[in-house]
Specification:
Three copies of one chain form a homotrimer.
Chain A: H1 12-26, E1 38-43, H2 49-60, E2 64-69, H3 81-91, E3 95-100, E4 117-122, H4 128-142, E5 149-153, H5 160-171, E6 175-179, H6 195-201, E7 204-207, H7 223-230, H8 234-237, E8 245-247, H9 270-298
Helix pairs in contact in A: 1-4, 1-9, 2-9, 4-5, 4-9
Chain lengths: 305, 305, 305
C-alpha cells in the first residue's frame, strides 16, 4: 500500500504524472473507478479550501464521500484516530483523506490500515497536496523550475507548507529562500532574504499566513508593524519584476502578510492555486485508487514504506 | 449576473414564471443542467427547513451539493465571508446559497463574485425564497391575491419574512395588515389590526415566530400572557372565516404564537408551506443556473444590478 | 406503517429475511428503489460506526441522504424532535434514521409521522440494528444459535445493546448470561457468571463499553482495576475454547473491557461486526422502503402498532 504522507512518498516521475493528470482533468478529461468507491474525509481541524476542494474532486470523479465530523463522532467518547480509521475501513471506505492537528499522526496508522491514507495536513508537518498544487501553479507560469528564484515568506516555523514546498521546489531545480521575522528562522536550511530583497529578486513570492492559532507565546509585533516590516505592501509590490507572481495558500490575513488591494491583483495567483487544487486532488485520488487496484490484481502487497 | 437577494430582484413576470415552474416540479416535472453542476450551501445560522429544503431541491435537480460548515471552516481562522465565497467559486461552485446573521451581507459580495448568490436569509433583512413559497401557498388556495386580506402577526421587528412578504403581497394585489404587541410597530407602513380583529377579517393569517434569540432586551411579557393577548388561541380560531387559512414560517413556538392543537388543524397550511418550499427552491435554482448559462452563451454580462 | 423501534417490532420470519438479505448484499447483490428516494439521518448523539454505516448503506442502495446536524438546526431555537421529523417528512424524506439521547423518543412520533422511523439508538433503551448485526455475526460463525452460550459482559445498566441482544438471542435459542461488576446487576433476568467462568464457558463473549458519559455517579473502580477484575485480559483469553469468539459493539476502551492486544486478535470479530453493520442496515432500509410501497399500493394503512 502506498500512502501520500508527504511529497517524499512520490518519485519525481510520479510527481510529473500527477501534474500531467491534473492538467488533463482541468481540460475536462473524465476518469472514474469501475465500481462504486467510497472515500472518507476526516477533518479534525477547521478547513475551507482543502476540505471543499477534496470534496469537489471526489464528486468530479464520481466517488461517494463519507464526511466524518469529529465533533459528532465517537472521538468525543475517547476513540483513537486509529480505531476511527479502522472502523471506516471496515465500513467500506476505499481510501481516507485526513487532516489532524498532531504531527505525523499517520505513523500510528500505516502499519495496520489496508487502504491509502492521503494526508490533508498534519500539525506543523506536511501538506503534500498543497505542495503539488503550488508546483502546478508555478509550472503553468514558467514551464520549468530550473533556476527560478522562489521566496517563501512569513510564518515558516508553524507552516506545514513551507518546508514541504522548499524541499519539493529544490528537487525540481528552483533556488529557494526564506523571508520574514528573523527570530522565526533558527535552525533553517534555506538562505534568508529580507522582504525588500525578495520583491526585487523573486520570480515567485510565496506568502504564508500568520497562524495566530498555532502561536503559543504572544507575539510582540502588531499586525500593522508586521505588515510594514515583513509583509507585501502596495509600495513593495511595485518593485517586483514584471513577470513575477504572488502566491499564498490562504486563508489570507488581508493587511498583514499582504495588502488588501493585492490579493486579487494581476500578478496574484491566489485563487488560481485554489482552482488548481481541485485538479491536483483528482489526480492524487486517481493515483491512490489505481495503486490499490493494481495491488489487488497482482495479489501481492507492495511494501508499506 | 443576477442574484436573488430579495424579492425586489425579481420582476412580476419572473415571479409568475418561478411559481409556474414550482408547480410543474410539484407535479413531477424533471429538469437538470446539461453538465455536472456544484452548489455550495453556506449556513452561518441554525436552520432546519431552509437548509434541508435547499438540499432536497438541489438533489432533485441532480446537482452536487457542497456543504460548507461554518464551525469547521476557515471562518474559525478569521476568514471573511467574501474570501470564503471567492474560494468556493475558485473551487468550482456554480452558485451559492447563503444564510448569514448580518443584514445585507451580500453587499460585500455582489461586485466581485461571478456566480449567482441566492439569499437564504440575511439577519433581520430578507428571505426571498420564504416569501415565494408563502405566495405559492396562498395562490394554491385562492388563485388570485387581488383583494385578499392578509394579516402578518407577531414579531415583525425581528422578522426577515414580515417585510419581504408584505412588500410582495401588496405588489400582487393583497391588502396587508400587521398585528402583535403595539410597541413592536414603530415606524411601520402597514395598518395595524388587533388579533381579535384579525381572526374575523383575515383570509390569510400569517403568524410569525417570537425570535427569542434576536431579542436583545428581556421581554416583559410572559409567553402565556403573549399567547392570550396576541396569539392564535383555540377560542380565537373559532371566529375565523370558513375559508381562511393559517400560515407560519416555522419553527413554531407551540403555545405562544399559536395553540399547540392548531398547528396541524384543518386550516393550517404550515407543513404545506414546507412542502412547497422544496419546489420553489428548485425553481429558483433553475432560474439562477439558466441565467448563468445564457450569459455565458451570449458572451456578455447582464448588469449585476 | 411499520417502524423499527426495537427488535420486538420484527417477527422471527422477518429477522430471518433481513439476515438473508444482508448476506446477499454482502455478496454483492444490488437493490434500489424505482424512484429517487430520500433518507434523513438525525443523530443527536455522537456516533461514528452507526452514522457512517447507515450512510454507506444508504449510498450503496442509491438513496439520497439528508444529513440533519442537530447543532446547526432549529433544535437550537427550541424546535421539538416531533416538529423536526414532521418537517423532514414535509420536505420529502421517505424514511428517517434517528439516534437520540431520550429513552423511547419514538413514542412521541409514531402516531402522526407517516414515514418509517428506524431507531439508531434511544438513550439507554434499544439499538435494534446493532442487535441484528450481532446476530448475523454469530450466525456466520455457528450457523444456528440453539444451545450456544453467550456471555454479555460489562456495563449492562447503561447499555442499549445488552438487553436488546439478550432478548433476541434467547428468542433464537441461545443461553444468555451477564457478567461484570455485581453492583450493576440488580433486577436482572439473566443468570450471572464471573469473567473467569465466562472465558471458559462462552461460545460468544460479547464485551460492552464502559459508558463513562452515561455514568452519573463517579465509579469507585479504576480502569486498571476494572480490567483485572472484570475485563478480558491477555491471561483470561488463553482459557477460551478454541472455537469461541470475542465481540464488542465499539468504540472500545482499549485496556479496560479488553486488553489492547486482543482487539484485533484472531478470535476477535469486532471489525467484522462493523462490516456486517453496513449490510444489515441495507436490509433494514430495503425492508422499511418496500413496506411503505406496499401500503401505498394497497391503498390502506397497516396499523402503526
Amino acid at each position: 500500500m502506498k500512502h501520500l504522507r508527504s511529497v517524499d512518498d512520490l518519485s519525481t516521475w510520479e510527481i510529473e504524472q500527477l501534474l500531467h493528470d491534473a492538467t488533463m482533468f482541468a481540460k475536462g478529461e473524465q476518469w472514474a473507478p469501475a465500481a462504486q468507491t467510497f472515500i472518507a474525509n476526516l477533518f479534525f481541524e477547521p478547513s475551507t479550501r482543502t476540505k471543499m476542494s477534496f470534496e469537489a474532486a471526489e464528486r468530479k470523479l464520481g466517488l461517494e464521500v463519507l464526511q466524518f465530523e469529529a465533533s459528532m463522532s465517537s472521538t468525543q467518547k475517547g476513540e483513537t484516530l486509529y480505531d476511527s480509521v479502522k472502523t471506516l475501513e471496515a465500513i467500506g471506505a476505499n481510501a481516507v483523506v485526513i487532516r489532524h492537528q498532531q504531527d505525523r499522526y499517520f505513523e500510528d496508522l500505516v502499519e495496520n490500515i489496508q487502504i491509502p491514507i492521503i494526508n490533508a495536513g498534519d500539525g506543523c508537518g506536511h501538506h503534500p497536496t498543497q505542495s503539488l498544487l503550488d508546483l502546478l501553479t508555478i509550472q503553468q507560469e514558467f514551464i520549468v523550475l530550473q533556476g527560478l528564484t522562489v521566496v517563501i515568506a512569513g510564518d515558516i516555523r508553524h507552516s506545514r507548507v513551507a518546508r514541504s514546498n522548499a524541499s519539493l521546489l529544490k528537487r525540481m531545480g528552483a533556488n529557494v529562500y526564506f523571508s520574514g521575522p528573523e527570530e522565526w528562522f533558527q535552525h533553517n536550511d534555506e538562505p534568508y532574504m529580507t522582504m525588500d530583497e525578495a520583491v526585487e529578486k523573486a520570480d515567485v513570492l510565496m506568502l504564508l499566513r500568520i497562524q495566530h492559532e498555532r502561536h503559543q507565546e504572544k507575539s510582540t509585533v502588531t499586525t500593522a508593524a508586521y505588515h510594514q516590516r515583513y509583509g507585501l505592501t502596495v509600495e513593495r509590490e511595485k518593485k517586483m519584476k514584471p513577470t513575477s507572481i504572488i502566491m499564498h495558500p490562504a486563508p489570507v490575513n488581508r493587511g498583514v502578510e499582504i495588502a488588501h488591494e493585492l490579493v486579487e491583483c494581476s500578478r496574484s495567483r491566489i485563487f488560481k492555486q485554489m482552482n488548481n487544487g481541485v485538479y491536483v486532488r483528482m489526480a492524487v485520488l486517481k493515483w491512490a485508487l489505481e495503486q490499490q487496484k493494481e495491488e489487488k490484481v497482482d495479489g501481492y502487497s507492495i511494501s508499506g514504506r
